[in-house]
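Batch job 17 of 40 flagged for manual review because the log was empty.
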Amino acid sequence: MHSPWSRRAFLLTTGGSALALTSSGLLPSDEAAAAAADEYGTLRAKWRTLILGEGFTPTAEPFKSRLAELGATARELRGTMAPATGSLWPDASYADPDPDTDQESYGYSANVVTGYSRLGTMAQAYRQEGTGLTGDAGLKADILTGLDHLYAEIYNENQARFGNWYSWQIGAPQHLLDVCVLMYDQLSAAQVADYCKAVDHFVPDSAVGSYTGTSTGANRVDLCRVLALRGVVGADSAKIALARDALSPVFPYVTSGDGLYTDGSFIQHTTVPYTGSYGSVMLGGIGMLFSLLRGSSWEVTDAKKQIIFDAVEKAWAPFIYNGLVMDGVAGRAISRGISASDTKKIQADDHRRGHPIMSAVVLLGQGASAAENARWRGLVKGWMRRDYYSPPLSDASLGLTSLARLKGVEDDTAVAAIAEPTGHRLFADMARATHRRPGWAASISMADPRITYYETGNGENLRGWHTGSGMLYWWGDTYANGQYSDAFWPTVDPYRLPGTTASRKALADAAGGDWGASMPDVKWVGGASDGQRASIGQYLKGLQSTLRAKKSWFCLDDTIVCLGAGIVCTDGAAVETTVENRNLGPTGTTAFQVDGAAKPTTAPWSATLTGARWAHIGGHGGYVFPGGATVKALREQRTGKWSDINKGGATTAIARKYLTMYVDHGTAPTNGTYAYALMPGASAAQTAARSADTGWLQILANSDNQQGVSVPSLGFTGVNFWFGGTAGKLTASAPCSVQISEKSDGTAVICVSDPMRAQSSLTLTWNRAVSAVTAKPATVTSAVTGASLKLTFGDLSGTRGASQRISVKLG
C-alpha cells in the first residue's frame, strides 16, 4: 500500500542524512545548510509521489494490471533501445539532416521528447511496485545509459534547437527532470550538473522574463514546472523562487489574449477557446506545482491564486458533462484520435480528455478550502458515476497517479455524487455557450473578430474549417454520450457539421492558416441569458467564402429553437444548413420517421422531404419544422482515416453510418432562411405533439434585420436585433440581444446585451404594462413604466457583451 509521504519517508529517501546531521552537534550554519538540503529532498519525495501516485494497493485491480502493463512496456522499450549516432531508439531519430522549423524538423525535435518520455516510462517501472522490474539493476543501468546518450548527442548546452520550440523548452526537459527525480539516488553529481546545464541552456530564466509569446497561459505553467524541478534537482533556491513568482501572471483575469476571463472563458494561442486541452494542461500543472510547494520555503502565497480555485466551477465544470469535456473547447485536439505511432491503438476522445481534468480538480482541491474540496470531490464522483460510455477507472490512457486519485474519490463513502446542474452559460469572450437541461446538454461554437474559425497547426485538425460556424453539439445523459467519441471527426462530412451553415466550396487542408490565423470581420456574435434560458446569435461569414448568414438559437427548457435568415453566397457551390448529422456507429440501423412515416433503415438512402413538419431519430430525439419545410435526408456510410485530419494519425480506414438532415439553400441564395426546433431525448409522440401544438411557438421575426421567438406557455420572449427595429412587442433603437422571462408571480426579468460591444446608447421599448422597475444595472440611465416600458441604456461598450439584468413588476 502506498501511503502519503511523510518526513520519515523523506529521510529514508535522502539516506537519513538530515537525521545524522541534526544529531551530530554541527554549528548553526551547518545545521541551516543541512535543513536546506533536507528540504530539497522533501521536494523530490513529494514530486515522486505526484508522479507515481499514492493511496492504492499495487496488488489490487485496476492497479495490478496497469502496473504489470507498465512493466511489460518498460521491458519492451529496454529491449529495443539501441544507442547509436542520431538516435536512442531506431524508430525515433533526432538527426535532422536539414534543421530548421519546417514540419519535418518538428518531427525530429519531437523524437528528442520521445527519447526522454520512454526513459521516463522505464524509470517509473524501476521505482513503482508491482511492475516486475522494481529495483532491477539492469534496467537502472539502461536508464542511466540512455540519459547519458541523449545528453552527449542532442540535449546539451552546446546544441542549437530546431523544429518545435516546445520540444526543447517543455517536452524534453519535463521528462528529463522527472527521470532525474525518480533516479536521483542513482545519479552522480556530475550527471546532475550536466543535465541541469542542458536545461539551463534551453530554458534560461529569460523564458519567463515577460508574459508574452509562448510564455503565457498553459505554456507558462509548463515552463514554471521545468524551472521548479530544475531547482529541486539542482538544489537551486533561486530557480524554485523564480518558478513560483513566474506563476503569478497566470492568475489574474485577462481582457484579451491568453488566459482566464471573468465570464469563465479560457483562451490560448490568442484566439482559440482551449478549456479542454491547453486549459487541462494548465489546471493539472498548477495543481502539481501548488502541491509541490505547499508547506515549503517557496509556497505560492499570491492571493490571486484563488482565481484558479474559482475557475474550477466557473471555467472548467461548465464544459464537463458525464465525464467528457466538450469538443468545442478542445481546439485541434479533436483530431488526435489514434496516433500512427501508438502500438496499443488507444483512441483519444472527449471522454479521455475529460478524465485528466477530473483528476486535476481532485489534486487542486487538496490546497483549496475544505468546502471547495468537498464539493469538487462530489462533482468528480458524479461525473465518474455517469460516464457509462467511457468509465474513467477503465481508461487505459489515464496515468496511475490520476487513476489513484479518482479511485480514492470513488471509494470515499463520505463523498456524495453531485448531479449535473441545469442552466445556461454564455462565454461571450470566447464565442461559446453551454445549455444544460435534465437529461441532456448542448453547446454552441461560433467565431468573431477575436475568436478564430478553428485552429490548425503541427499538421493537426486539417479539416476543422466549419467548427466555428455555429456547430451545435448535444449529448444525452443515458444515451448518445459518445456521439463525438466514436471516430466522429475522421468520418463525418466536414461540410455538414450539425447546426452549421456552410458553402460546399472545396477548401484545402489547413485552409485559413495555422494557429487560429483566420477570424471573421463580424462583430455581432453573442447573446443574452438569465442563467437558465438564452437568446444567442451569430452573424456568420464563411471561411474563404462569400457566404453570409444570420443565425440564432433560443435555448429553452426542452428545446433549442434554431433560426437562420439573410443567407447569401456567390461561391457557385451549394449552401447548406445541417439540421443534424448523427453518428450511428458501425451498423447504423437506428429508426427514422418523418411525420409519422417510417423511413428505410438501410444505407445508402436519400430523400427530399417536402412539407415536413417533424422528424424523429430513434434513441436520440426529435426535430420540429414550424409551418413545414423542405428538408433533405440521407443515410450513408462514410469512411475516413485519422491521418486524413492529422498528419500523425493512424492510416487505418474506419467506417461509420450517419443519418443527416439538411436544408439546401441552392448554389446562389440571395435570402435563404430556415427554422427548426431540436428536442433532445424527446420521443416520437412528444415530437408529434409539439408539432401539432401550433400555438406553442410564435416566430416573431426571421429576417436579415431581426430574429425572435415567443413561447407564451413559458413566458419567454427572445429577439436578436441585428439592426434596430421592431419584433413582436419589442422595439430597439440599435443592435442588441434581448430575452424576457415573465413569471407566474407577476414579475419579469429582462436581459439585454450588446454583442457588438459598441453601443454608446440604446433605447428598448417593451409594449407591455409594467408598474415598477425593482432592480436595474447602472447601465440603465432611465426607466419609464406604464402602459409600456421604456429603458434607456448608456454606454454598453465596456460590458464585454455580458447580459444586463432588469427586474420588473408587471402592471
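Reviewer: the log was empty due to a logging misconfiguration, but the result itself is present. Residues 28-52 form the longest helix (25 residues). Unflagging and moving on to job 18.
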